[in-house]
């Protein structure tokens, strides 16, 4: 069975003694961020709808009291409140929040046939979930002079057909990021990461893992020479969560191997 890469230790351990909450942290990019936090010396509370995936993380990480999992539905305020309170009870403080949970599939029906239920589902998970988690973690974050990192997408800047709901939700996250950075500063810094193509196949729960099926062309079309990995996003998240980025707030960081700066012609 394919295993995700092991936790990589950071020499400087910039999150030593700090507690970071990661929504959607049991699989994919969220798991990559959670492992980066642990590798940087931090403690992590992951929240996810998938209980099996959350429990698998704790078993495979084997870091004792430095990691915890609790079920979380970011679209339900009561669930968010319970999750944040569980983290405070367990760790006593919150130094960072990563709003990563979201619907991953950007493609839906053409706009003329897109249902209101589908539209609302994208916005309630991707955008309202970011609002709810930030709202309820903010008092503890302010007390700790902490940081929020919102995981948006390069699709907030460019699109394919039939992705209006997803693009709108991720674009809303960017506006929410700079607005909250102004409102919550200087106590809390708020930034956004916009991932491009990130291969998460090996970062799923044990029964669904496999190596990414990527062609040479898939890698070669990126100026960086390859498709991204969850570790790439995790490394930037650690920087934005740590004191290393103390003068950085309200910003958006594209991490896509250079795809959005590449001229493309049909």
Describe the 3D structure.
This protein has seven helices and seven strands, in the order βαβαβαβαβαβααβ. Strand 1 (19-23), helix 1 (28-39) and strand 2 (43-48) form a beta-alpha-beta unit. With 266 residues, it is an alpha/beta fold. Helix content is 39%, strand content 14%. It has one domain (19-261): NAD(P)-binding Rossmann-like Domain (Rossmann fold), CATH 3.40.50. 42% of the residues are buried.
User: What is the percent of helical residues?
Assistant: 25-40%
State Rg. Answer: 18 Å
Inertia-based shape? globular
Q: What string gives the helices and strands in order? A: EHEHEHEHEHEHHE
pLDDT averaged residue by residue: 95
CATH class: Alpha Beta
Number of helices: 7
Kindly name the structural category.
alpha/beta
Tally the beta strands.
7
Strand order of the largest sheet: 3-2-1-4-5-6-7
Largest sheet: 7 strands, parallel
- CATH fold-level assignment: Rossmann fold
Strand content: 5-15%
- Count of the separate structural domains: 1
Low-confidence stretches: none
**What is the fourth-level CATH superfamily?**
NAD(P)-binding Rossmann-like Domain
CATH architecture: 3-Layer(aba) Sandwich
Distance between the termini: 40 Å
Outline the fold blueprint.
Layout lengths: L18 E5 L4 H12 L3 E6 L2 H11 L5 E5 L5 H15 L4 E4 L16 H29 L2 E5 L12 H21 L4 E7 L20 H5 L9 H12 L10 E4 L11
Please describe the structure with a list of short key phrases separated by commas or semicolons.
alpha/beta; 7 helices
